[in-house]
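Attaching the record inline, Q. Sequence:
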Amino acid sequence: MVQNVNAAALDLPVSGKLVQRQTTLPQSFSIQSRTDSVSFSAKVSTGDAQNIVVDRAFEQLRAVVEEARAELGIPEGETVDLSPEATGDRIADFALNFFTQYAENNGLADDEEGRAQFADFIGGAINQGIEEARGILTALNALNPDVTQGIESTASHIQGRLDDFVTNGLG
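Structure, as predicted:
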């Protein structure tokens, strides 16, 4: 494909302002592009191709899990309780640790009203994360009835912890 280009102008953001810069090009020049093709001598079925994609996705997921394990200080080979209650407790504990800072930044008192406002905020973020995880599992064809039930139980446990926090505080 041949394209003719006469002049170009670029808009570049600088310190929050939009600055226009002129670039002078010759009156007319040509850019040629070509299409490369790749052929395979072996036949790959659609199923094999999907398996390759899923395997690569799981490799990337394992790398993320290993990185998270290292950042959380969980030793290699240590068994982690993945029950909905234990998972919900880890998520709730992590989220509730931000209450003091959130309350300070937003002028909230450590009373039922202030805790409710925080619980609404952090609960929305947690629910968004759960929905994103659901989407990832769906894309990987890993969302089955057992996994769905585990997600629902975890979400319910987290909500119970948030409700308890609103009523009783962190203590």
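Residues 81-168 form one domain. The radius of gyration is 26 Å.

More tomorrow.
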